[in-house]
Design brief:
- This protein is mainly beta.
- It has 1 helix and 36 strands.
Length: about 500
C-alpha cells in the first residue's frame, strides 16, 4: 500500500468517525423537532410610511441574501390621482438591501418618479419598472418603462415602439423577460389579466407583447393563436420562458375576457400549456428544469385547480386536498416539490405536493386558513395563516414533521413589528416578509436564521427552540390596524373560493 492510498483511507475513516456524532446530533435534533431563532431586519422606507415586496411573480431575495423591495418617500406623487401605488399616493423608489445597507435604486430620469423592482439575480442585478416623467398621450396615464439596475446605474430597456414596458425577471446570463407595448391599437384596455389582476399597472391603448431583452436587443416572442396580447413572466437559468397569452380576441361569457392560456417558450417556439378545461390559466412559478406550476379554471370557469406542466408529461391536474373543490400552486423548486393553497373539508389550507401526493400543511391553532408561497431546496416552506380567511394573520414556517410555526415566536422580543406574511425563502433559509407596525404602517422585513450558516450576527439568539414541547406563546405585539396590500403587485394570488375569475 503506498502512502497516498493510506492517507486517503485514513481520511475517509476519520471523516466517517467524525460524521457519527454529527449524525447522532442531527437525529437528536430531528427527534426533538428543534428550530432556529431568527433575527428580524426592518428594511425600512425612504422617509414615507410603508415599504413593500412585489410578491406576485417575483424573486425578492437572491442566494447571497441581497433583497429588493419598494419604499415610499415623503414626496407627493406628481401624477395624483393616477398613482403607481395607493392610497398614500407618494413617490416610491426601488430599494436594495445588501450587506446590512439600504440602497436607494432611484428612478428615471432623475429620481423624481416612482420605480419598483421585481427580481434580483445572483449577480445582484435587479429589474422592474420606472416612471419616466412622460404622460402617455393615448391614455393620460404616466408612462412606465422596463429598467435594469446594475453597478449603481439604472438602464432604460425600451419598448417595441409603444409607450410602456415592464421587466419581470432576469437570469444569471443577463437575459430579461417582460412585457413591452407596440404601436398597434388594442381593444383590451387592461392589456392582460393574470391571477385575476391586471399584469400592467395602468390601462394601455396598444398591444402588449411578451419580450426578451439581451445585450440591448429586444425580441418579440409572439402570442398564442390569434391573441393580441402576451406577457413573459419567468425566465430560468436555461433561458426558458413562461408567461400568459390571449389565444383569441373574443371575450368569454363566463369571464368577460378572451381565453388566456399559460405558455412555455424555448428556442424561438411558444408552446400552449393549455388549461384544465376552463378559459383562464396562469403560471405562478417555473423552476430551472422548465417545469411550470400555477392555477387553471376547470370547465365552466367557476372553480380553479393547481396544475403542473413539463415538456415530457404535459399538463397535470394536481387535484385538491380531501373534501376541497379548488386549489392553486404558487411555487416549485428544482426537485419538483410544489406548494400552494387548496380548499379542504376543514377550510383553505397550505399544501405540499411531492411524488404525486398532496399533503395538508395545516394552520395555526385557532386560525381559519393558510397558504404556502415559497419552498427552497431544503424543503423549508413559508407562507401565512389567517384568523378570518381574509386578512394575513401571521407569517408561518412549515418544516419537515413540524406543525405550522408562527415566525413571530422565533424572533427576539422587543420589536414593534408583527410579521403577517412570509413571501420568499432562499436556500440559506433567509426569508422575506411583511411586518406591520402598531400604527398600521407596513414594512418589508428580512428574517435571518441564527444558525451555522450565519455565525456571529449581532442580536442573534443561537439557542434552539424545541417544538416537540409546548410551542412558545405568541409574541406580544402592539395592536394596530391590519396593513392593507397597497400595490397592484402585492395582491398575491388568493383562490376565489367557488367564485368566478374577475373580469376586466
Amino acid at each position: 500500500m503506498n502512502s497516498k492510498t493510506w492517507m486517503r483511507i485514513t481520511a475517509v475513516a476519520l471523516f466517517a468517525a467524525l460524521a457519527i456524532p454529527v449524525q447522532l446530533a442531527a437525529q437528536e435534533r430531528q427527534d426533538k423537532k428543534e428550530v432556529h431563532h431568527y433575527k428580524l431586519i426592518d428594511i425600512g422606507t425612504l422617509g414615507g410610511p410603508n415599504s413593500f415586496f412585489a410578491t406576485l411573480f417575483s424573486r425578492e431575495i437572491n442566494s447571497h441574501g441581497v433583497a429588493v423591495a419598494e419604499a415610499e418617500t415623503t414626496i407627493p406623487d406628481p401624477y395624483s390621482p393616477n398613482c403607481l401605488q395607493g392610497p398614500d399616493c407618494l413617490v416610491n423608489h426601488g430599494i436594495a438591501w445588501k450587506n446590512g445597507v439600504q440602497i436607494d435604486l432611484g428612478a428615471l430620469p432623475d429620481g423624481n418618479n416612482s420605480s419598483f423592482p421585481f427580481w434580483v439575480n445572483d449577480q445582484g442585478t435587479a429589474v422592474g419598472l420606472s416612471e419616466n416623467g412622460v404622460i402617455d398621450p393615448l391614455t393620460g396615464n404616466p408612462e412606465v418603462i422596463a429598467v435594469l439596475w446594475k453597478d449603481g446605474k439604472i438602464l432604460d430597456l425600451g419598448t417595441l415602439g409603444g409607450n410602456a414596458s415592464l421587466a419581470n425577471a432576469i437570469n444569471s446570463q443577463g437575459q430579461v423577460a417582460g412585457i413591452a407595448l407596440n404601436t398597434i391599437p388594442d381593444s383590451e384596455d387592461n392589456g392582460l389579466l393574470a391571477g385575476g389582476f391586471p399584469i400592467f399597472p395602468f390601462a394601455v391603448a396598444t398591444q402588449l407583447r411578451a419580450v426578451l431583452w439581451h445585450d440591448g436587443v429586444i425580441q418579440d416572442l409572439g402570442t398564442l393563436g390569434t391573441g393580441n396580447d402576451a406577457a413573459a413572466i419567468f425566465e430560468n437559468q436555461r433561458g426558458q420562458v413562461a408567461g400568459v397569452s390571449y389565444t383569441n380576441t373574443i371575450p368569454n361569457v363566463t369571464t368577460g375576457i378572451p381565453t388566456i392560456d399559460p405558455f412555455f417558450w424555448e428556442n424561438g417556439k411558444m408552446v400552449d400549456i393549455g388549461t384544465l378545461g376552463g378559459t383562464v390559466g396562469t403560471p405562478f412559478w417555473m423552476n430551472n428544469r422548465g417545469q411550470v406550476v400555477g392555477y387553471s379554471n376547470v370547465a365552466g370557469d367557476q372553480i380553479s385547480h393547481a396544475f403542473l406542466w413539463d415538456k415530457k408529461k404535459g399538463l397535470k391536474d394536481l387535484g385538491t386536498l380531501p373534501g376541497g373543490m379548488g386549489a392553486g400552486a404558487n411555487w416549485i423548486n428544482d426537485d419538483g416539490e410544489i406548494v400552494g393553497g387548496s380548499e379542504s373539508s376543514s377550510g383553505f389550507h397550505a399544501f405540499l405536493w411531492k411524488d404525486g401526493v398532496m399533503t395538508d400543511l395545516g394552520i395555526l391553532a385557532g386560525d381559519c386558513s393558510s397558504q404556502a408561497f415559497s419552498i427552497n431546496s431544503q424543503d423549508q416552506i413559508v407562507g401565512d395563516s389567517s384568523p378570518d380567511c381574509i386578512q394575513d394573520g401571521s407569517a408561518v414556517l412549515f418544516e419537515k414533521d413540524h406543525p405550522p410555526i408562527d415566525l413571530n415566536t422565533l424572533v427576539s422580543p422587543g420589536s414593534d413589528l408583527a410579521i403577517t406574511l412570509a413571501t420568499d425563502i432562499n436556500d440559506r433559509g433567509e426569508i422575506t416578509a411583511f411586518g406591520v407596525l402598531s400604527n398600521g404602517d407596513g414594512h418589508a422585513v428580512l428574517l435571518i436564521p441564527c444558525d451555522e450558516n450565519h455565525p456571529g450576527i449581532e442580536g442573534c439568539d443561537y439557542a434552539l427552540v424545541d417544538m416537540s414541547a409546548a410551542p412558545p406563546a405568541p409574541r406580544t405585539v402592539p395592536s394596530g390596524e391590519q396593513h392593507p396590500s397597497r400595490s397592484w403587485r402585492t395582491n398575491r394570488y388568493r383562490f376565489p373560493v367557488r367564485g368566478t375569475v374577475p373580469a376586466n
